[in-house]
Write a structure and sequence with these properties.
Helices cover 35% and strands 22% of the residues. By secondary structure, it is α/β, with parallel strands linked by helices.
C-alpha cells in the first residue's frame, strides 16, 4: 500500500512538473511570436520612413527644378557673436598657486589671496594623509566642491576658485590646521 501511494505521489508530482513546463514553454513561444511581430512592425515602419524620405527628396528636387520664380537663397545660419567682456571686471587670471605640505605636516601657505579663476594645487610631501576642505568641519559646505576627499602621501589635488569671497578652510584630518582663501 505504501509503495502504491509513493508511486502515485511521484507520478502526480511528475505530471504537475510537466504541466508547468508546458505552460512555460507556451509562454516562451508567445513571447517569441510577440518579438517577431514587433520586428515585423519595426521593419514596416523603417520602410515607411524610407519611402517618406524618398518622397520628400523627390518633391524637393522637383521643386528646385521646376521653380522659376525669383527667389533669394536663404543665407546659412550664423552664430551670434560672443558676449563682450565686462570692462569693469578683470578677466580671470587662470594662475596656479602651489601649496606644499611638508614632512612635518605643515602647509607652506595657510592664508592665500588669489583672483577669480585661479587654481590652488596642494602637494602632500608628508607621510600622512591630508585633507584640505571648505569650512565648517566636518560638513565642508561653505564652498561647494572644495573638498579634496583626502590627499595620500606623495599625491596632489587641485581646485579652481570661481566664486569671489573669503572662504575659510581646514585640514579635515588635522582640524586645528586652518586658513582662509580670499578670491578677488
Amino acid at each position: 500500500m505504501f509503495l502504491f501511494l509513493a508511486a502515485t505521489a511521484t507520478s502526480y508530482t511528475l505530471k504537475l512538473k510537466e504541466t508547468r513546463i508546458d505552460e512555460k514553454n507556451r509562454k516562451i513561444a508567445d513571447l517569441k511570436n510577440e518579438i517577431n511581430n514587433l520586428d515585423k512592425d519595426t521593419g514596416a515602419l523603417e520602410e515607411d520612413n524610407q519611402a517618406k524620405d524618398s518622397d520628400q527628396q523627390s518633391v524637393a528636387e522637383n521643386t528646385n527644378q521646376n521653380d522659376t520664380s525669383n527667389t533669394t537663397p536663404t543665407p546659412p545660419a550664423t552664430q551670434p557673436p560672443p558676449p563682450e567682456p565686462d570692462p569693469t571686471q578683470p578677466p580671470p587670471s587662470n594662475n596656479t598657486v602651489v601649496v606644499t605640505i611638508n614632512s612635518a605636516g605643515n602647509y607652506s601657505q595657510l592664508n592665500i589671496t588669489i583672483n577669480k579663476g585661479d587654481t590652488i594645487k596642494w602637494v602632500n610631501n608628508d607621510d600622512r594623509k591630508h585633507w584640505p576642505a571648505s569650512n565648517p568641519h566636518p560638513q565642508h559646505t561653505n564652498y561647494p566642491g572644495f573638498d579634496s576627499g583626502g590627499i595620500n602621501p606623495g599625491g596632489s589635488w587641485s581646485f579652481t576658485f570661481n566664486n569671489k569671497g573669503t572662504w575659510g578652510w581646514h585640514d579635515h584630518q588635522f582640524p586645528s590646521t586652518t586658513g582662509t582663501i580670499t578670491v578677488l
